Amino acid sequence: MKLSTKKILISACLLGEPVRYDGKSISIKDKTICYFQQQGYLVPVCPEVMGGLPIPREPAEIIKGVGDFPDRKVITQGGFDVTEAFQRGAERTLEIALQNNVIAALLKSNSPSCGNLQIYDGSFSGRLIEGFGITVRVLKEAGIPVFNELQVSLLCDFIEQQG
Ligand code: SF4
């Protein structure tokens, strides 16, 4: 694996940090991620906590606005608008990514911040739809590719292609 001085941004919850809305973590046992961690390649971030939200916190989902994509909001299950905190966390995440010269991001699937392929549909019914989280949007706009924890082999392919 040729990473040299490049780093990989990673959702902190995937490394066992208890930063999720419910105060839990998702420690995944992936040999490649363990290797990256041992080599010091990983830069952990939790956009929601960096945006100022507490642990634990109410679950939140993206509600699509009518019309353009930026009109969408992030609303908690109790109806509180947390869009600003999510956006602040996304921008802070991008700053950290740029400061660390990251080559890609490996983020938790389905999250309203970190999901790169699907997100919950805003009805808090557990239904997933195509889309991506607030932080993923900011990273993609900056040209940083985002993979999820089920796409580690794709991430490795990408790194190999970078030479
Ligand atoms: Fe994990 Fe991202 Fe949610 Fe933080 S915002 S708990 S890193 S999925």
Automatic annotation (TrEMBL):
It comes from the Bacteria. InterPro entries: 2-thiour_desulf. It holds the Pfam family 2-thiour_desulf. This is DUF523 domain-containing protein. The lineage of its organism: Bacteria, Pseudomonadati, Pseudomonadota, Gammaproteobacteria, Oceanospirillales.
